[in-house]
Amino acid sequence: MKHRLLPALLALFAPLALAQGLQARDAWVRANPPGAPTAAYMTIANASPRPARLVRVETDAFKRVEIHTTVHEKGVMSMRPIEALEVPAKGEVALAPGGLHIMLYGATRPYQAGDAVMLELHFEGGERLRVSAEVRAAGSGHHHH
Amino acid sequence: MAGMTKRFGPALWLLLTVLVIAAGVGVNQWRSAPTSAPTDYHAYEPPLPLPEFMLTDHAGKLFDRSRFVGQWSFVFFGYTHCPDVCPAAMTVFQQLQRQIGPDAPVQYVLVSVDPERDTPAHLGTYVKHFNPAFLGATAPHAELARLTGPLGVYYARGPERDGLYEVEHSSAIFLVGPDARVRAVFTAPQDATKMAAGFARLRKT
Fold it and tell me: Nearest-CA neighbor of B174 among B147, B145, B156, B193?
């Protein structure tokens, strides 16, 4: 009985944003040259039994934000904005270099490796998730210390 | 049953031996395949000579075929307004340069296929962010075609959305030899360690 009660108790204390079981982890932004757009990467996990749809991302650190997918076809890379990004029920979706990413364009202030960029993820249905993304010089999702 | 074994014994053993040898050869060939025929790059045999072309580098200097002579060059075609793929390729250049060594006679070149936005000054800021020794070069499309055409590099400008557009482009990294002939093409997704190993093999040929 104890193990059934524990998750319920924990849920009471969970932050409001996690009410529907959405979580983002390993969020990072590539430190790109000044004036060039960059991208944010992360893994979004959905613990709920319903799929979630990420429809918009907001930040005050960049003028323009778009959800993009990179398509690699016959040796050609093309990037396309997408309307929404679906996170499957009881599943997760990885945003990583060479694939799905959040394009950040027009930095409102200079940024460099080690800084944090606050992103607000808006899901269909009004749920929001605030994510702190670390600015990294690396080209991959791995830490280089 | 016992009599049959006696009669067919030698023939059975011969058949088994042949089968075992055949299997062994098969396994060995399968095992050695990845090392004897690397799949992470395609070598040009014979190397592909480059035609005459005239680009402008990030310092405003002429970047023509002679700039490839006397050193090895890794060349990527991209653009600086590219948020994901191109910075990843530039990072591969960074890792490659660290593995091959900064003093090796190797240059790293980003050829921009977006000359409208990538002025030499803008290209300079971009490539130097990744390494002060990296080079950027571009030219009007008609001139770019003289280089991209023979290499089979494809690019096309995408639709404009509120003043912003993407350029879809080939994702390959080319290796040009000190004789200004293309030696190999590394296809995406590129791995710097594998590329450095491939380069070590290719530079001996």
Answer: B147
Q: Which residue of A has its CA nearest to B191?
A: A140
Q: Tens digits of per-residue pLDDT, B46-57?
A: 999 999 999 999
Is the Cβ pair B91, A138 closer than 8 Å? yes
Residues of B engaging A, defined by a Cβ cutoff of 8 Å? 80-85, 87-88, 90-92, 94-95, 122, 125-126, 128-130, 154, 158, 161, 164, 166, 168-172, 187-189
Question: Phi and psi dihedrals of B155, rounded to 5?
Answer: -155, 155
Report ipTM for this prediction: 0.75
pLDDT > 90 in chain B, percent: 76
Distance separating alpha carbons of residues B48 and B42, to the nearest angstrom: 12
CA–CA separation, B101 and B97 (whole Å): 6
Rounded to an integer, what distance in angstroms lies between the CA atom of residue B191 and that of residue B199?
A: 12
